[in-house]
Amino acid sequence: MTTHRAPADGAAGAAVAVDIGGTFTDIVLFDRNRTRLANAKVPTTPADPSLAFVEGIVQALTQSGLAPADIGQVFHGTTVATNLILEGKGAPAALLTTAGFKHVLEIGRHDVPRNANLFTWVKPKRPVPPQRIFEIAGRLDSSGAELTPLDEAAIRAAAKKIKAMDVRAVAVCFLHSYADPAHERRARDLILAEHPEALVSLSSEVLPILREY
Predict the structure, then answer these.
(1) Domain boundaries, position 76
(2) Cα–Cα distance for residue pair 171/90, rounded to 1 Å
């Protein structure tokens, strides 16, 4: 009979990594106790990616002879969103941003790929066109202190216009929201009050870091 030795920290001894791609979902399971790998590849289930996620883990567990309770860590990655952007298949989106920053997406970082020909390189299409970008008055400083109150009326007006456009994906990206997300969270509440079907993403939740772009 084989004896399985638990890690010193008492956690389960297996770790599983799942990568959900547009066509396949790949799973690698590492059993620390026996220092061996198991892997699986299953078709991605676009309508519900969790189905392939679970099916792949079940197959890897079957190969390794482990039970779900033996898994102590799960690492998850996906290229689904990246593929949607590269292929231009994502849903139409709108953006609410700090007044004065409407063209930040167009400006970007001024970067040109180092190996590109400066005379032939074409800048990628911006993810949100200017007609769906709304500037909102309200300003925080880098410490999160409020310099200008949030213009709630402007947010409500923008939400009504976005709803009239039949756009349901809405991003909110206000300056210095990483220091204090209060303005972005209030904006989400106001957007949903006017446009309940909207899916609102806040920069302070997705990637709360310093930078304008």
Answers:
(1) 14-83
(2) 13
Residue segments in the chain with a per-residue pLDDT below the cut of 70: 1-12, 213
pLDDT, tens digit (0-9, with 9 covering 90-100), for 145-189: 999 999 999 999 999 999 999 999 999 999 999 999 999 999 999
**Cα→Cα distances 183→6, 41, 65, Å:** 47, 43, 50
Q: What's the CA gap between 33 and 4, in Å, rounded?
A: 6
CA distance 60 to 28: 7
Q: How far is CA 198 from CA 24, 78, 95, in A?
A: 29, 23, 12
DSSP code of 115?
Answer: T
pLDDT of residue 127: 84
The number of distinct structural domains making up the chain is 2
Antiparallel, parallel or unpaired: β 14-20 and 24-31: antiparallel
Q: Do 60 and 120 fall into the same domain?
A: no
How many whole angstroms separate alpha carbon 211 and alpha carbon 98?
13
Give the residues across from 75 on adjacent strands: 17
Asked whether residue 22 is assigned to any structural domain, the reply reads: yes
Distance CA 171, CA 97 (A): 8
Q: Is residue 61 part of a domain?
A: yes
